Amino acid sequence: MMSGPSLCQPVPTAYNPAALADHTRLQQHLLRTERTVLIEVASGDATAPADRSPTGNHTVRETLNKRLAELDQDDFLFEGGLVAEDGELPEDARTQIRGITPLKSGAYLLEFNFAEGATRFRTYARNPALCFPSSILGQWAVIKEKAHTLIFRFVSCGGMFDPSNRDHLDELEQDNNLLEGAIVSASWLKRADHRSLKQTVASLKVVCSSAEAANHLLQSRVFVAGHLITIRKDVQEPTRCNKCQHYGHIRNTCKNEERCPSCASSDHTTAECSISFTPRCMSCGPNSTHASSSRSCPIFKRLCDDLDHRFPENSMPFFPTGEAWTGPPPHPNRPHLQQRAPRRTHPPSRATRIVLTMTFLPLPSPPLRRQSTLDNFGYSATTSSQLQHRRRTGSVPSQ
Ligand SMILES: [Zn+2]
Ligand SMILES: [Zn+2]
Ligand SMILES: [Zn+2]
């Protein structure tokens, strides 16, 4: 598999007091991400912890840490590692969960003392003989791997390519020089039965098994069923309700009246809307002249800016792998180092533009492109049922 060039020093992991606030926040965000592991717990699993109160969560954390200490000890003794005179592992070598956050979905987000702790936790969990962490978090508890999700655009949807057919995904891997299994799954962003009859191309969500595979595609000319397509990284997006068209919630929790996403009328659905109706945005009000789904809506743009601020990974053109070129942009005050993204064969995305800005390279002006299927933790959040609720592409995806 092709890998990116290593042109510069590794990403600094220590606090740099000279760095700008945005740069520091991005570094901190990446470091925190590396230290977290998301555990999915099956609903109705009677062997999962029943008490999800702060006290119950504290107990779960302590139980996990106790088991981790035993596993670390065994591991170090087996590996011939150094232990202190009392036979205990030194404090800084122990895998410890520093924080445990129960999520509404039933999952637990674990934060470790250091990135290596999260890696070691994954190694223990992969060993079926250890029954870990299922012996503590429930028999169906599994680690949910971070999503490396890409959006393929202008993919022919005329029937040649079927993302639900594994043979087609295998072919996609071969055509694009990927290792077997590099593509975990693919699905259309919009349901096939919601397309117009004239539609010949559509957007495809592609989940890669590794950051390396996703980065390889981001640097390549990508072909699907023999056709060159455009591709970009999935980023965090504002959530828009596909019932009332307002931002901040989804249809399942909506108590408002249903509105047409194009003209905001409550009299008809999208399919019944005519181009003779004046576009109107529910968020911007009666004087607006754009649709609620418009990507040029000022409210949408403001929400995007807020998300970029909260999730600085949005501004990174690649998935971080530890190699410097995949990491955060270089220090903005030192623009002359050779730190630049690998050669691209298609126009840079909005995210790439941000990096180019920070390295003071000449700027092209590609159109704004956003469309997210990620949740707040960088894990793939879109289930097939959520996908079934997607109604409009070529516009802001709503939920
Ligand atoms: Zn709503
Ligand atoms: Zn309408
Ligand atoms: Zn608007």
UniProtKB/TrEMBL annotation:
InterPro entries given in the database record: Znf_CCHC_sf (IPR036875)
Q: Where is this region: Disordered?
A: 320-350
Q: Give me any GO biological process, just one.
A: mRNA processing
Q: Name one GO molecular function term.
A: nucleic acid binding
**The UniProt record lists the keyword Membrane:** no
Membrane listed as a keyword? no
At the top level, the lineage of the source is Eukaryota
Which keywords does this Swiss-Prot/TrEMBL entry list? Answer: mRNA processing
- Name this polypeptide is given: Nucleic-acid-binding protein from mobile element jockey
